[in-house]
Write a structure and sequence with these properties.
Blueprint (H helix, E strand, L loop, with lengths): L5 H7 L8 H36 L3 H29 L1 H21 L3 H29 L2 H32 L4 H4 L1 H15 L13 H24 L4 H23 L13 H31 L4 H17 L1 H11 L2 H18 L8 H4 L1 H24 L6 H40 L5 H9 L15 H40 L34
């Protein structure tokens, strides 16, 4: 899933110097290819996780960090990335992000160990934090009000198609070439972006240079890293070990200090006063709950399909295609719901439908037919998200004054990313604990030798990547394999029920905190609500340009 409010960034930006029609075509091409590069990477990696786990004989904790190292740096630094473009030049920072992203992609593809891969993924996240907001900022400054709508539609349409095709392409590469090509494919795309950018994109920057909140960026990065590291480490070490609780204390302490710094900084990365708007706070709490559910779903679902259901990597990518296409095809219709019913009703109904979708994912067992087991759940979840995404963008943009719209949508985008990072860490622990409990109970009924039992228990953290010991007779080997698959399904069902609860919580927050209709433009206060046309484009990535 792409994160919220990307189109909101473009809409909230002011045109610096509109370019000629010919230059605008090249600008759209460069930003579409660059954004697609980031979108493809984020969707393809999940499909490649089982192959990565098998290649490096990695645990689920290692696989979690493959996703978390990228998402954590991107979530923590995306607001700073937008500010850097305003200060030092949008094209310069955009190109710097593309170069860093491409170099890190090469490092991922050449990684000889899981640790090298994690380092390269972290650098990739830094590049994406410069690249993603930069591409949107360039569009917002290169098109005037008359042409911006067409530009948004073109950018959103093409990037949505690339996002949808990403898992299928990645699955095909994993199945027929190697997981390494999932990262190498970024290199020719980056080369095209660099050539077009140097040739056709003019440099631009903010008229009034702001200040960077480096202390805030450092604190939120260390805070999230400490928190996530402590949670993931607890899976294998337990909560009482010093490395675990020290990491958690450092993480929580830095996040608390971050809030204090943001209240006193002259140019805070996250101006906390913006949360005085109940609608804005409600929209972000809804985003936190719903995108936490989506984040852990997209982490576990490919593991289920490939390792348990025995789908090919290509079929796994294709299995998720209807969900993404449904959101894209219904985005204009869901934007019309805002104009007719306001934002609250869709934001109540959409998450409830998503909750039903998650519950449907908890039904299938091992070996079910895709069209009867998973397809109905994908359609219901996709419909719920399609109803939610455009109204969520609209309420974020309309909950604050116009001069805060860019900052508001940037914060909402960062919240979605943080939600996914934290959900994969926290609910990953839930998954492992449930898997281990069910597996131990099943293995206890098989009367296995203690040596084999201890070997299996020691590797429970691999989840469905755990393989029966070699050299066993076919009957006990099949029984162990069945126990592993059943244990994964048991844990997956628990997590899906939690995802449904998160979605219902988001719906309740929308009902309680978001008004039925927006206030008139004359409403008092600097954080007033204002009427604004429904955002009819797809809910997607968002930069954090500070004003």
């Amino acid at each position: 899933m792409r994160s919220p409010c990307d189109e909101a960034v473009i809409r909230s930006g002011a045109s610096a110097s509109p370019c000629t029609a010919r230059a605008q075509t090249w600008i759209l091409a460069a930003t579409i290819v660059a954004s697609s590069m980031a979108f493809i990477d984020s969707t393809v990696v999940n499909v490649a996780l089982p192959a990565l786990q098998a290649s490096f004989h990695a645990t689920v904790a290692d696989v979690q960090w493959v996703v978390e190292s990228y998402g954590l740096l991107l979530a923590a630094l995306i607001l700073v990335g937008g500010s850097l473009g305003d200060i030092f030049g949008r094209r310069l920072i955009f190109l710097l992000g593309v170069v860093i992203f491409a170099a890190a992609s090469a490092g991922c593809g050449l990684a000889a160990s899981i640790h090298q891969l994690l380092i390269a993924r972290s650098v990739q996240g830094i590049g994406a934090a410069l690249l993603v907001p930069g591409s949107l900022a360039i569009i917002s400054t290169s098109f005037d009000e008359k042409t911006r709508g067409t530009a948004i539609g073109t950018w959103s349409g093409f990037t949505a198609i690339m996002t949808a095709l990403g898992p299928v392409l990645g699955g095909w590469l994993v199945q027929h070439a190697s997981w390494r090509w999932v990262f190498f494919i970024n290199l020719p795309l980056a080369a095209v972006v660099i050539v077009i950018s140097l040739w056709h994109i003019p440099e631009s920057r903010a008229a009034v240079r702001g200040h960077l909140d480096w202390l805030g960026a450092l604190l939120v990065t260390v805070g999230l890293a400490g928190l996530v590291n402590g949670i993931i480490a607890s899976e294998s070490m337990g909560w009482t070990q010093p490395p675990v609780w020290i990491s958690l204390v450092i993480g929580c302490g830095c996040l608390i200090l971050f809030l204090f710094v943001e209240t006193t900084a002259n140019a805070p990365m996250v101006p906390l006063a913006i949360f005085r708007s109940a609608s804005f706070s409600g929209a972000n709490l809804l985003t936190l709950a719903l995108y936490a559910a989506i984040g852990i779903f997209f982490f576990l679902f490919p593991l289920d399909l490939i390792q348990v259901q025995k789908y090919s990597a290509t079929a796994t990518g294709g299995a998720m295609l209807p969900l993404i296409l449904l959101i894209f095809l219904l985005s204009r219709w869901s934007g019309g719901l805002v104009a007719r019913y306001g934002s609250r009703l869709p934001l109540v109904i959409g998450p409830l439908l998503a909750a039903l979708g998650f519950l449907l994912f908890a039904v299938p067992t091992v070996g079910g037919n895709y069209w009867t087991s998973f397809f109905p759940a994908i359609i219901v979840l996709g419909l719920g998200m399609a109803i939610t995404v455009a109204p969520l963008t609209t309420i974020v943009m309309s909950a604050v004054s116009e001069d805060r719209a860019g900052t508001a949508s940037g914060i909402n985008n960062a919240v979605a990313r943080v939600a996914s990072v934290l959900a994969i860490a926290v609910l990953g622990v839930v998954m492992i604990q449930a898997f281990g409990m069910h597996l131990n109970r099943s293995l206890g009924r098989l009367a296995l030798p203690s040596r084999l039992l201890q070997e299996l228990q020691a590797n429970e953290i691999k989840l469905a990547g755990l393989e029966p010991p070699a050299g066993l007779d076919p009957a006990p080997q099949a029984a162990i394999a069945h126990s592993i698959a059943a244990a994964f399904i048991f844990g997956f069902r628990i997590v899906m029920v939690i995802c449904a609860i998160l979605s219902i919580t988001g719906s309740a927050l929308a009902w309680l905190m978001i008004p039925k209709s927006t206030a008139s433009p004359s409403s008092p206060g600097p954080y007033r609500q204002r009427r604004q046309p429904a955002v009819r484009s797809q809910h997607s990535w968002r930069s954090g340009r500070m004003r």
